[in-house]
Amino acid sequence: MKRSIRGTHLAVAFIVLAMAAAPAAEAHDWGCWVQASRTVQAWNNSTMKAEATAAINDWNNNTVLSVYDVGYHTTISVFDGYFGSTGWGGLASIESSSGCVITHGHARVNLSYNPSSNAAQGIFCQEVGHLFGLTHSNDGGCMGGGYYYDIGTYPGYSVVQHNIDDIAAKYANLGYSPTTSPAQPAAGAPVASAMWNYRPTSLQDAVANADAVVVATVTGVSAGPDLTMPVGKDDVDRIPTQRIAFGVQESFTGDLEDEFALFHTGNAKYILDEDGPYQAGQTYVLFLTHRKDGTYLVSSPEGRIAVTSKGLQPAAEDGFTTALKGQTLAKFSASLKKALRAQDEH
Ligand SMILES: [Zn+2]
Ligand SMILES: [Zn+2]
After folding, report:
1. Beta strands in 25-145 (DSSP E)
2. Model pLDDT for residues 315-327, shown as the tens digit of each residue
3. Does residue 139 share a domain with residue 62?
4. What residue numbers bound the domain in which 255 lies?
5. Which ligand sits closest to the CA of 77?
6. Nearest to 128 by CA among 33, 252, 203, 243
7. Measured in angstroms, how far is the CA atom of residue 110 from the centroid of ligand 1?
8. What is the CATH number of the domain that holds 284?
9. Do 187 and 214 have their domain in common?
10. Cα angle 31-37-140, degrees, rounded to a multiple of 5
11. Closest-lying ligand to the alpha carbon of 147?
């Protein structure tokens, strides 16, 4: 069922004006990903059923998309489960595609982080939004929740006008019958996007929430066990993981040995946005937290900063680490030591 948006024309006009004035205004597309048509089949197989239903209805009721639950494993399958301390509170993944068209996707919430009802709704909302081909956007709604602001505080868990506009623009030329897209995703394009459970908003914040901060070099990449979750009676959701072996070059804080293993979600094919594959020989500044199995975790992309011949290259696309791009390791080390001293004096 569609709600009329006739009454919101004035609000739309204001937003269009505001967007024209703001240089940051852009369509928030996630790569080239798109659904085949405005009619999208979904399946809500979640235990937090009401929250997932509210999220799906939010997109269905407010955008040009018609999203309906077919009751079986289909184009957008929505579920939740205890995935453990992975760093992410939610994960959207493209399980199969044809060119840029998503033919099957999973939108999941990680219950191990005990999301509140509102936060769970927001995470479902965001992961489903990714499967419509949207990336994160700083607009007050669920596509920016957990990134720019709290996802559990209204309107952080809901669809907002900007998302409605992005969907309208994206699906302007697509009707309700499936069409094929000749476009192909770029080589190495991410096929998964995470809602990180915790994103530090400053260097001080990152230092305060890390068990260890090091400069370390990748010495090896190996496959870890898949994270698995039943999807209905007959199917299993599989998320590949890796263990990245590191040799420590310099330790700023924490009691790491000379070598440690990092838990990493994804692999060379299952590429996470902002947290892609590691390669032997790469050097990073890492903000780490312990996992119970003895491995470590970069709790969010803000905690992963590559050290390259062109200076520092943060993994996060936005946030406080953006300003570090191109900075020398020496300069950053000085800021880091200062932040650690301030932390100690606390
Ligand atoms: Zn599936
Ligand atoms: Zn996301």
Report:
1. 39-44, 66-69, 76-81, 88-98, 101-110
2. 999 999 999 999 9
3. yes
4. 203-344
5. 1
6. 33
7. 16
8. 2.40.50.120
9. no
10. 55
11. 2
